[in-house]
Amino acid sequence: MDQVMKWIAKVKKSDHDAANQLVSFYYKDVYTYIYRQTLNKELAMDLTQEVFISMLQSIHSYDERKASFRTWLYRIATNQIVNYYRSKYYKYSQVVTEMDNELGQEQDFTMKLEYKEDIERILALLNTFETSAQQIFRLKLFGEYTFAEIAAVIGVAESTVKTKFYSTLRKVKKELAGDAHE
């Protein structure tokens, strides 16, 4: 982490090489976090780029006493995802996602399609919840954060995070069970 702090200090002084190193260091993790929630390579790449643009534009406001850099960066990523799903672009165009070219066997294709449809149903439902519930659910499931880490990211008590997560999880399960009976 010492290296990360050195890069941050240099980026704050407009060092482009340090900015590139910082982005490279976190790119794969942030991309994976976003991809798990969009299941669309191009969209995940676009949103990841937006996260890093936002990070570079606001790095001067980063305060290491308040949160780790990773926590701060994931807060930006989570907000970017929530904002995307709230946007008119998402709501009105509902872009059709392409399946990967590497589909393999028909059974694999069917399993991928069913998984993708399940994730899309969960995400569509999640997008109707309040922002903090979305953030907690996304960080826990897609970012694989602990409850303590989520509490640090969004600035609330760990007990509140657990309560909201399990409440949201119950709502999602109830809704999905209702869909299955229709």
Describe this structure in words.
The protein has 182 residues and is mainly alpha-helical. The chain has two domains: 99 residues, Orthogonal Bundle (Rna Polymerase Sigma Factor, Chain: A), CATH 1.10.1740.10; 75 residues, Winged helix-like DNA-binding domain superfamily/Winged helix DNA-binding domain (Arc Repressor Mutant, subunit A). Helices cover 77% and strands 0% of the residues. The longest helix has 24 residues. It is globular, with a radius of gyration of 18 Å. The protein starts with a helix and ends with a helix. About 9% of the residues have low confidence.
Q: Which secondary-structure class do the elements indicate?
A: mainly alpha
| Low-confidence regions | 91-107
N-to-C terminal Cα separation, in Å? 51 Å
In the CATH hierarchy, the architecture of the largest domain is Orthogonal Bundle
Rounded to the nearest angstrom, the radius of gyration is 18 Å
| CATH homologous superfamily descriptor of the largest domain | RNA polymerase sigma factor, region 2, helix turn helix motif
In DSSP terms (H or I, runs of 4 or more residues), the helix count works out at: 9
Q: How is this structure best summarized?
A:
This protein is mainly alpha-helical and 182 residues long. The radius of gyration is 18 Å and the shape is globular. This is RNA polymerase sigma-70 factor (ECF subfamily).
